[in-house]
Request: fold
Amino acid sequence: MTSRIAHIASNTFREAVRDRVLYNLIVFALLMSAAAVVVGQISIDIERLVVINLGLTAVSLFGMVIAIFIGIGLVSKEIERRTLYTVLSRPVRRWEFIVGKFFGLAGTLAVNTFFMAIGVFVALLYVSHHFQQQDRWVLVALYFIILQFLILTALTLFFSSFSSPLLSAVFAFSLFVIGSFAEDLRGFAGMTHGATRWLATGAAYLVPNFSALNVITSVAHSQPVSGQLVLDNSAYALVYTAMAICGAVLVFEHRNLK
Amino acid sequence: MSRSQRVTVIFSVFLASSLIASVLLLRRVDQVRTGATLEEVLYISSPQALRRLSLGYNGLLADIYWTRAVQYYGNKHHDGARRFDLLAPLLEITTVLDPQLLVAYEYGANFLAPKPPNGAGMPDRAIALEEFGILNNPDAWQLYYNVGFIHYMELKNYAGAAEAFARGAQRPNAHPFLAMLAGKMAEHAGDRQMARMMWSTSYQTTKDINVRANAAAHLRALQVDEDVTNLEALNARYQQQTGRFPSSFSELEAAGLLRGTPLDPLGQSYKLMPDGRVELRTPDDFPFIEKGMPFDYTPPPSPKILPSD
Amino acid sequence: MAAIEILGLEKTYSIGFWRKRQKHALRPLNLKVEEGEIFGFLGPNGAGKTTTLKLLMGLIFPTAGSARILGMELDDPRMKAQIGFLPEQPYFYDYLTARELLEYYGQLSGVEAKLRSSRVNEVLHRVGLPDVGGVQLRKFSKGMLQRVGIAQAILHDPQVVFFDEPMSGLDPMGRREVRDLMEQLKVEGKTVFFSTHILSDAEALCDRVAIIHQGELRGVGAVADLTSSVHGKVEVVWQGTVVPASLRALGAECHVTRDTVRAMLSEANQDAAIEALRRERLRLVSVTPVRTSLEDYYLQKLQPPNATVRVGAKVGTTV
Reply:
């Protein structure tokens, strides 16, 4: 069982690499280098701030785009192109296929983020000339960004299992935006009454909580991130990802392939 | 059970349990993070840059910051806080993002200017906020009213208040009270009648429930102050006539000084104290009162503003 | 044990905007395929052949009925390890090379790691693609993709192989090679189930066939039985262009070509006809018993049940 999942995952990774996804790293590297050089010349004591803000935001956005662009086709492309026929006629369980696809894309994003992290730290080193204590919070911020990717990947996988690529992209992107304001949404819900309150609260808790995973601004200002938050966020991301994958498995298990 | 059914059951159970777990974890995360999102406003050194970054969606962003401001104030107020550090940045960012959001300026006047625990105690910053609003909405009479209001209520700058009201009275569609307030300022500055006029204006013209509730509470307090002053004066007359203070309102009635039992604005009767003073039965229900409190009374840390009618 | 056993397998789709209309893609199908035979599943396009195969592969789920392959349920992974499937007009991951694709499929089918490379090479050889293992599939022609498809179907040495239109996209030589391969599989003791609408292939290869049309099974039987001379007719050919009256009297249907006449008459009149030709001094060329071709059987079965078709004549209703 695990070997089949591993093989599907590595094949998905191979597909992403051959689709030249990793070339985005070149664009990112250029961006970070340009930013570091420009900012290094405007020494108003905010170089570190700008590099972290820009770097982490770019990591987040680039990764989100990749997660959505590849995620939306994970299942639907295989159904449309009928490459699934020869896979499912083998002793591969449908749920193994879904789980394998998830790990493939998650792995791609993790590798991508790893290289980008190197880029951010190189730029940071360039403007600060030496690593500081506060830099470890940047690692935490990056870890949170990877957690965001896991959730987003699982969500696009879920949508891909029953929806066309375009709709999946719309849904996933909407959830990303709404999820970034999830805390505000829960606040709104608290201010409504009656039936609206139930619906709003339900929606507010169902939406992925990206806002808690975004600590870019505070890390840029050298604020520490509490260990409790790291634990809770990790658990939340794990659980939410599992939920979305279960959804995908359940949908796919009963789907008639055209 | 077929293989497919088994898979369905297992994954459905996983789905349900992870759903529950995610809700529970969310609540924990919210607790750890209270205020974290809000505190980020302290890092926005340039609201103008934020407006540019919002790529034309500044209206929506303004609404989000506005809602955060309302919640922030509500929570702090409820907890009886003495510091409202984030209220000013929240309102400032809201108004930069959407300068036409008049209710934000109203909040500035009503909740940014007053001293804690009723507000942030930053009247100067509140005035700066209003002036920014005037710059962007020169015809909005409410903003001039706000300026005058802050000058009067918090800064006790009656000349400044009169000037602001007069400016506002010249705007098209200005509320008629503005001219009246400007005119009466010279004579009645500092007295209860002016205060009552201003709070009535606020009460009638605002569309925000919190501002209205606040104004209603102030009006009730003014009513109580007036009632208590009048009743204590009647007590003094009774004492002059009979040599002692009355022990019940029927005695005052019998002496021809009163008709009926006086009720406080919430419908309860006042208490006659043996030393001639008049007290409220439930002083906690009346924030902002200056009279009618028991001797050793300390107001509750979080003033109880009843929802407005 | 039957290799494939289909019991009342049925597939109905609800279509239309309100999902009210029913489309019967496959009416209840009962079929049995024995081990070691080559079984042809014939029918025009849209008859339900692909639907049946997709149901057997577990790609779609039946509305009713069931099936077993090698005695195991359709969702049994042990069963799937012993079958191979070539879909119609297959499309593979075009970013992989042929070898990578087959390695991947080998992994998924549970072929042991140490055996995989050699099996992949072996099977590439067998389908006639010995030199293109390292070429990306996006560069393959349709015929080459078809061969890769066959390769992945037999890679893990399955007991039962399912081919959906295996000859499509192949030139005559390619088709010959595939036919030879299918014969070889039979020699190795495998069962082959394939669907096609090319009758000559079926006639040449199959032990048994089934004919399906509009979702319904119309006929099943051994090829040999279906094409035996049931009609009892003979074809008599003689030189010249003259048709003697005596032969017409025997009820011959004659077809005159440039310098020969072909006449069809019943077997009983065979001797009388030869005698008549001798009397007229006409030169006999051949006397051949007429066999029903599979095509005739096929076309007949495609008709609605109360119609028949005449041997060698155009399709139409007769008395």
